[in-house]
Amino acid sequence: MSTNTVINTIHVSPSVSGIAYAPDGTSVWVLDLPNTVAHHYDGVTLAFLGQASIVSDPYSYEPFIGPNIIVGNTPYQPAGASDLDTAGFLDWIPFNGGSLAPGSAITTSRGLSFLAGGGTIDTSAGNLTVSGNMVGEGTAFLTGSGRIMFSGTATPRAPATISSAPPPSS
Fold first, then answer.
1. Residue 3 lies inside a defined structural domain of this protein
2. Alpha carbon distance 140, 134 (integer Å)
3. Residue 7 lies in a domain
4. DSSP bridge partners of 107
5. pLDDT tens across the length of the chain (170 residues)
6. pTM of this prediction exceeds 0.70
């Protein structure tokens, strides 16, 4: 739930291009595109956890990062498409190592953005229908007995890879 109240501060360089929060609040990613890195912070303590290089064309990531990014070991489990709105996903559902496990069938016009860490879509509880585009250099791992219907296009600059194999364990 958004409160519009500042609860803590992350000190960043003036070259920051965007900030993305994990939907569960456990991670914060700060994009520093001129320096081609994404800084990772703990979402609760705001302790610096490390950074990841942004490869390819770093500016291609900028429009695909909203206020949230799916990361971590706990799947984000929206009950329906309206939960994506409530969680702050705008035009894109960005992944960087996390998983999306819809609680029921979801249809969305959002695009899917798979950053270097990739992501998993688990359709065990419901199908996912996506009419937006798919971008990124990460792998999209697909699991579950449901279906993913995708009618968008992959960006030729950095097309994501789709795999039905399970993601590697970390």
1. no
2. 10
3. no
4. 129
5. 444 555 667 766 777 767 776 655 677 778 776 777 778 888 778 888 888 776 555 444 554 455 567 877 778 899 998 988 887 787 788 888 889 999 999 999 988 888 778 889 999 999 999 998 887 777 888 899 999 998 887 764 444 556 665 666 65
6. no
